Amino acid sequence: MRIVSCSMLSCDFSQMGKELVRVQDAGCDYAHLDVMDGAFVPNITFGAPVIKSLLPYKKIPFETHLMIENPEKYIGDFRNAGSDIIIVHAEATNHLDRLVNQIKETGAKAGVALNPATPLSACEEILGNIDILLLMTVNPGFGGQKYISSVTDKIRRAAKIRAEKGYGFMIETDGGIDSVTGRESAAAGCDILVSGSYLFKSKNLEAAVLSLKNA
Ligand code: DX5
Ligand code: ZN
To answer: Is 190 exposed, middle or buried (0-12, 13-18, 19+ CB in 10 A)?
Structure first.
């Protein structure tokens, strides 16, 4: 069974609390919260106060994906807003090891994300110290993009390093995930599938979630 992390980016933002309840009831394991600043990526979404406003509805872990510059300034804010997992981009900091430790010191789990063009070597030295490796399968910034299949080999190589070194991090993919591309990711060694538009566009949310769990 794969872990399904629902990207709230494609939900009805005017009803975000209700939408969270809907995805929780449909069996999603995590809520994936895409924070974009219009600088690291060419789009702006929401920040810590919006995530905090969801707390009364929260029944599953919040996974906050920071697509922002200077992420080290805001780790405390996102933790206080209820983030159980905080994922930062290797491309957004000069001091990834320090940033991962900063996240862990708050008590949150730490994830590192890599854009499609960023090689695994950008975080290879600290793979033993992270909880999640998020491999972007689209260029971050927007929901509804097409899965970039060349990343599938990167998933395979990450899984190989993990097995060889005995590391414990989970591998996650994000972008263009549906039942077909989810299967491609899962077969390569992915444990957590992030999905937004596929889930929110589906007529039967429960069945769509299940198709990813069984990918
Ligand atoms: C893209 C975001 C993704 C995105 C996934 O920058 O990080 O989480 O919302 O959406 P879909 O599943 O529509 O590609
Ligand atoms: Zn994301």
So the answer is: buried
Amino acid making up residue 186:
A
* Two tokens, residue 40: 């690291």
CA atoms within 13 A on the CB side of 97: 5
Residue 160 CA to residue 97 CA, distance in Å, equals 22
Helix axes 151-165, 179-188, angle to 10 degrees: 30
Residue with tokens 């789990």: 109
Q: Which of 178, 179, 194 to mutate to test the pocket of ligand 1 (most atoms within 8 A of CB)?
A: 194
70: left (phi over 0), alpha (psi -120 to 50) or beta: left
Q: What spacing in Å lies between the alpha carbon of 23 and ligand 1's midpoint?
A: 16
Q: Token digits for 33? A: 């919260």
Residue 180 region by backbone torsions, left for phi larger than 0, else alpha for psi between -120 and 50, else beta: alpha
Which three-class secondary structure state does DSSP give residue 194?
strand
Ligand 2: centre distance to CA 33 (Å): 7
Q: Over the stretch 132-160, which tens digit does the pLDDT of each residue have? A: 999 999 999 999 999 999 999 999 999 99
75 membership: H or E segment, kind and range: helix 75-80
**pLDDT for residue 195:** 98
Which residues are tagged catalytic?
34, 174
pTM above 0.70, yes or no: yes
In this structure, which residue's CA is closest to atom 9 in ligand 1?
143
CB distance 174 to ligand 1 below 6 Å: yes
